Structures are given as C-alpha cells and as structure tokens.
Amino acid sequence: MMLLPTHHFRDIERKPEYLQPEKCVPPPHPGPVGTMWFIRDGCGIACAIVTWFLVLYAEFVVLFVMLIPSRDYVYSIINGIVFNLLAFLALASHCRAMLTDPGAVPKGNATKEFIESLQLKPGQVVYKCPKCCSIKPDRAHHCSVCKRCIRKMDHHCPWVNNCVGENNQKYFVLFTMYIALISLHALIMVGFHFLHCFEEDWTKCSSFSPPTTVILLILLCFEGLLFLIFTSVMFGTQVHSICTDETGIERLKRKHQPREHRGSWKSVKETFGGDFSLNWFNPFSGPCNPEPLSDRDWVRQAASLSETDNTETAEEQSEERKDEDSVEVTDE
User: Fold this and answer.
1) Is residue 20, in this structure, part of any structural domain at all?
2) Which transformation does this protein catalyse, written as a reaction (predicted)?
3) Which of 32, 123, 125, 226 is the most buried (most CB within 10 A)?
4) How far apart are CA 328 and CA 165, in angstroms?
5) Is there a domain that residue 30 lies in?
6) Is residue 36 part of a domain?
7) Residues 170, 273: contact at Cβ < 8 Å?
8) Rounded distance, CA 205 to CA 71, Å?
9) What is the domain count for the chain?
10) H-run or E-run covering 164
11) Are 42 and 145 in contact (CB under 8 A)?
C-alpha cells in the first residue's frame, strides 16, 4: 500500500509552530459577569429597529382601530390582554436573542503557551481559525458579521442582529413562535373586524375615516400574513435542528464530525432549560448552563487512513477546513 503524506502533516499539526501562534495576540481579560453582548452591525441594527416598528404598528392598529372603538367590551378586553401579552413576550425574546452571547469562543487563545498546555498526543489535532485567531472546538464556526467563532452556530440572523448559537437558540425559537402567534391573532381579528364593518356603518366601527381604516387593516393583514409564513418556517426548522441535534450549517454541509449523538429529548431539554415546564416559554429563563470548555474540547482526533479511503491528503483536509471556517448562513 502506498503511504500518503498524511502522517507527515499530522506530525506537524501536533507542533505549536504549525499554527503560527506568534501571530496571535493573547486573549483579553474577560469582562465582568453579565456584560451585555451587542453586535455593532449597521444592517442588523436597522433590521432590529424595523422588527420593533412592525410589532408596534400592529399594536397601534389592533388597539386604536379595532379594539378600543368596539362596543363589545368583553371581546376588546380579552383580545387586548392576549395580544399585548404575546407581543410583550415576542419583544422580550427578541431582546434576549439579540443581547445574549450566543456561545463565542475566546478570541486570540491560539497562543503557543495555550497550545503547548494541551499536550497533544499522536493522532490528535487542533484547528485554528485564521480570522479570529482562536482554537476552534468541535461544532464551532466563524461568523464574519460577529467576527467570532460561535459554538453550535446555526446561522446569523440580521433580524435579531446576532448569531443563533448554543446559548441563545431558545430565545430565537421563542421569538419566532410568539411573532407567529401574534400574526395569526391579528389576522383573525382583522377578519372579524371586516365582517363587523360590512354589516354595520363603516363610520361606527372605527374612530378613523373609512379609507384610512381600510388602508391600515390591509397593511396589517399583509404584514401578519408575511410574518406568519416566515416565522412559522423558521420555527419549524429550529425545532427540527434541536430535535436532530444538527445545526443549519451542519445540515447544509452534511459534515458528520465525530461527536456524541444525544437523544432528541435530551437535546430539547438542554436547549430549553430542563424538564418540560412553563419556563420553556419564558424568555427570562435561560437554557441549561453549558459546562466550561475543558482541554479535551479543544482537541480533535485525526481521521484514520481507512476513513479517508486512502485518497485524501492532509493538504486537502486543510483546504476543506479553510472553507469551513468561512461558512456563513443567513435567513435573509
């Protein structure tokens, strides 16, 4: 059997000099506990502002066009409480998804001292992200917007101006769920309000003029239908990713890297914070706290020659890994 140069390159990968640690600045000291995470991206900030504006527009139309002018006070009070509660939970989930660290890997930790402290053994390799100079643990991917490697990165969402990763996926799922629910609720109320106005005088069913009322309701109907479809699809894909323990990037690339395959229920409980309870739907309750990264989390086992079918060299693996570092998926 012809020997491939793979062994040679694996020997080199075990040496700190291979990763050029001298080009990495030592990681900064961690900030105080509870430091707010915020991405300074113009597009993401604009999308987040638009999200809030659309929710507040729906609030305005529901309250001042449909519910307050209604003579059925029981109908107005019940629907007003339900809609405002869902809207509050949606905006709270949006803030938590936007301001929570999604699982960023310490920046600049690919130093010679840190690599040597891992005490790599034969057959073990570490991968360095050339963009943020970090040692990449398994299932971490680099985000070009956040400029960090994110653990279990699913995608970067401009609507929450953040990556969806290990620590904030619960909040993103709740955000999509509550937006879908208020969109459906608004569409149902718009349908009933149109029927009510057709049966009675248009001047009595709203405090605005009939043309203004029609325009406001049509815009709300269009907004509700659009976001109901969009957030329902996103909610379904996120739940599927959690149940299969496979992120969006992993699903697209189909790179089954060696890792522990957990049951779907265990993955769900870790994402939403324990056994099923009302806290699953509470944006102020976090997911299960992940264990701090240990030395073994930074190290990966090199693929054997049998797994590569004697055709893939280390250069090809390196090029493939380089492509993986730059993968970015958005839900635009």
Assistant:
1) no
2) L-cysteinyl-[protein] + hexadecanoyl-CoA = S-hexadecanoyl-L-cysteinyl-[protein] + CoA
3) 125
4) 13
5) no
6) no
7) yes
8) 9
9) 1
10) strand 162-164
11) no
Asked whether the CA dihedral 187, 191, 197, 198 is positive or negative, the reply is positive
Q: How far apart, in whole angstroms, are the C-alpha atoms of residue 302 and residue 257?
A: 11
For residue range 154-181, list pLDDT tens digits in order.
999 999 999 999 999 999 999 999 999 9
| Confidence check: pLDDT of 8 > 50 | no
- Residue 71 backbone dihedrals phi, psi, to 5 degrees: -90, -15
Asked whether 111 and 21 are in contact (CB, 8 A), the reply is yes
Q: Which one-letter DSSP state was computed for residue 64?
A: I
Q: Does the pLDDT value for residue 322 go beyond 60?
A: no
| Residue 152: CA count within 13 A, CB half-sphere | 21
Measured on CA atoms in the order 320, 326, 329, 332, is the torsion positive or negative?
A: negative
**How is residue 18 written in tokens?**
């291979």
Q: What is the mean pLDDT of residues 189-200?
A: 87
> Does residue 180 belong to any structural domain of this protein?
yes
Domain encompassing residue 209: 42-310
In SS3 terms, 254-321 reads as CCCCCCCCCCHHHHHHHHHCCCCCHHHHCCCCCCCCCCCCCHHHHCEECCCCCCCCCCCCHHHHHHHH
- Evaluate if residue 186 carries a pLDDT over 60: yes
Looking at residue 205, what is its pLDDT?
79
Which residues participate in catalysis according to the annotation?
157
Residue in this structure with the two tokens 């693929």, named with its chain if needed: 303
